[in-house]
Amino acid sequence: MFDKVLIANRGEIAVRIIRACRELGVRTVAIFSEADRDALHVRLADEAFCVGPPPAARSYLNVPNIISAAEITGVDAIHPGYGFLSENAGFAEICTSHGFKFIGPAAAVVALMGDKASAKRRMQEAGVPVVPGSGIIDSDEQAKRFGADAGYPVLIKATAGGGGKGMRIVGREADLAAGLAAASGEAHAAFGDGRVYIEKLLERPRHVEVQVLGDEFGHVIHVGERDCSIQKPGHQKLLEEAPAPNLDPEIRSQLCAAAVKAARAVDYANAGTLEFLVAPDGRFYFMEMNTRVQVEHPVTEAVYGIDLVRWQVRIAAGERLTVRQEDIRPRGHAIECRINAEDVDSGFRPASGKLGTVVLPGGPGIRVDSAIYSGADVPPYYDSMLAKIIAVDRDRPSAIARMRRALDETEIHGVATTIALHERILASAPFEAGRTWVTWLREYLLQPAAVS
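-> structure tokens emitted (452 positions)
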């Protein structure tokens, strides 16, 4: 096992990793920007190292400073968390070349699966269903040929990155060139890579993902599936649950088997997630693989009783995965609500400032992953998520009731939050029935007139 791990991240995921390492007897080093000097992850770590000024590009994305911090503090490994450098193959390679174990898959796997076009090709070769799509778009003429063959609407997607950046829906050929330019420009600004490709857009699909774990000895298992269909405009997840409601058992079995096949096809070692779109007729298609821990990993942990972050560290330290596939059985139902500092009525505009009173929920079946506290600063430089509230109970109706109670207990003063929107989602008839899809939030709650 490692002696000391540097956490190349901030916020609640940095706190989560610190806790997992402490339970394993591993010391931790937090990095922080000048804006995060008083952050909770800095307080909880054994050591802390400032890596730059507030902007992420000069601190949490500053690879030379992060590697210097690792060398000065004498760590064995670096955990990237999610976001920032977590899916940066170059960073993974640099960690390895400097003698630090990257807590994640091999750099070559990060590169392969981080490029959506190459990932799709590898999945096709492995026999995993993929959405019909183009290769990298080199010209408007190529894009028009694909649109004519596949039929509209189509979805333009950046080959790098995620989080809804570099994505545009195009409903007719006349709008294709403008959509390509906009998606490419946004992708280049967000990821430094403006390449895009096009997929046939599925109508009202669900977003269902499968958690996988693999060790460095070729043992791969799945840890069930999650439904992530409640998404903000821009394809950013807002609420997740496990297991996925109203999913045919045969489809569930096929999804999980496809995820394991996909992970084995790339010799995957560590925690990862295979994301699929599930059409209304039950057919499913590979969308992308996230080669890191997911924001929504707690719902899987709650239902399957497995600590994914602790296993990330153990696998990276060279341990064998001792969990067998037959051990993976869901117990109850879990829901996660992302509490973001956002003004919903202003198009989810991020909010920042100093928090006033903060009261987070507790009681049976409630878990809160957060790094906020009363009086903490919410800087404008980073992701807007304040906390994740996770409710687990014996079945889905009970978990919904428990989450409603938890949200009612929660108080966060000083910035706008998404709490009220979550309360509306939980009270809606389609959500209670488990009948939602990836654009449901926009169509049903944010623009109710758009729903027939």
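The chain has three domains: 4-103, 132-200, 206-450.
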